[in-house]
């Protein structure tokens, strides 16, 4: 399941989310909370959810940073990267055996941060021009904040692409690769797994392309009307996870 818009909204728990998680545990159903946010480590996100009244241990959280680190570990074990991002991304790459460097890295890895540096973006551009491969954790152009949308990974990636003519490979949603890495993390099979999300253009499409049942909740971005505009449909639409909690009882 997605996190923002499904379990929480602006760090407030969505009504029924705690009951839904509790019912999953009672059924001993394995689950993961997925997020394209690469800023925080799973431990950080677990603490943030706990402050919202939701108990989600860190081993039940899967981020685009973890998916990116898993992808790079499979592609080029023991490689090196120049990283624009925060602790969630750098920690994941370190744990995957990667060396972080500014000198001839194998990859430039772009993640989300609240302190984008012009100097580091300029260095990333030069490294890519000189042959480094370009990876980004997710294509989201904006992220939410109490004051309104903020530029996110996709927007900065577009800037770098415009300067280098090199498109990044995006690992996070809607790439079904993130779904498959999450399935592997909990030893689950697509035929017996559902993806719950609030966005048609990331959650639902990535679940659909990975062969999962897809459930759209109306507590986030997408509405019934906006969902009808897409050429694909979720398996079902519910008002919120509270409806799913009732089904599990």
Please describe the biggest sheet, giving its number of strands, its sense, and whether it closes into a barrel. 5 strands, parallel
Number of self-contained structural domains: 2
Shape: globular
The strand count comes to 14
CATH topology of the largest domain: Rossmann fold
**SSE succession:** EEHEHEHEHEEHEEEHEHEHEHEH
The residue-averaged pLDDT reads 95
Question: How is this structure best described in words?
Answer:
It is a single chain. The protein has helices spanning 17-26, 42-51, 64-75, 87-95, 118-129, 153-164, 176-185, 200-209, 224-227, 241-247, and strands spanning 8-9, 12-13, 33-35, 61-63, 80-84, 99-100, 107-110, 133-136, 142-143, 150-151, 169-170, 194-197, 213-217, 236-238. It is built from ten helices and 14 strands. With 249 residues, the protein is α/β, with parallel strands linked by helices. It folds into two domains: 8-36 and 176-247, HAD superfamily/HAD-like (Rossmann fold, 3-Layer(aba) Sandwich); 66-170, HAD superfamily/HAD-like (Rossmann fold, 3-Layer(aba) Sandwich), CATH 3.40.50.1000. A hairpin with a 6-residue loop joins strand 9 and strand 10 (150-151). The strands form five sheets. The protein has a five-stranded parallel β-sheet, with helices on both faces.
């Amino acid at each position: 399941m997605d996190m923002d818009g499904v379990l929480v909204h602006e760090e407030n728990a969505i009504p029924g989310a705690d009951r839904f998680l509790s019912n999953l545990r009672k059924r001993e159903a394995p689950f993961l909370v997925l997020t394209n946010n690469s800023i925080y480590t799973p431990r950080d996100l677990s603490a943030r959810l706990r402050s919202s009244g939701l108990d989600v241990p860190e081993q039940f959280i899967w981020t685009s940073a973890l998916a990116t680190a898993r992808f790079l570990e499979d592609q080029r074990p023991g490689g090196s990267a120049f990283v624009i991002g925060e602790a969630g991304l750098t920690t994941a790459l370190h744990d995957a055996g990667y060396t972080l460097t500014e000198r001839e890295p194998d990859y430039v890895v772009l993640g989300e941060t609240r302190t984008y540096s012009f100097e580091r973006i300029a260095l990333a551009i030069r490294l890519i021009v000189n042959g480094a491969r370009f990876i980004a954790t997710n294509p989201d152009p904006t992220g939410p904040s109490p004051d309104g949308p903020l530029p996110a990974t996709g927007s900065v990636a577009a800037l770098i692409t415009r300067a280098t003519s090199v498109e990044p490979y995006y690992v996070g949603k809607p790439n079904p690769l993130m779904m498959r890495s999450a399935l592997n993390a909990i030893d689950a099979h697509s035929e017996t797994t559902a993806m719950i999300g609030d966005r048609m253009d990331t959650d639902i499409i990535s679940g659909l392309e990975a062969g999962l049942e897809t459930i759209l909740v109306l507590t986030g971005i997408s509405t019934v009307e906006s969902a009808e505009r897409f050429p694909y449909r979720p398996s079902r639409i519910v008002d919120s996870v509270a409806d799913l909690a009732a089904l599990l009882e």
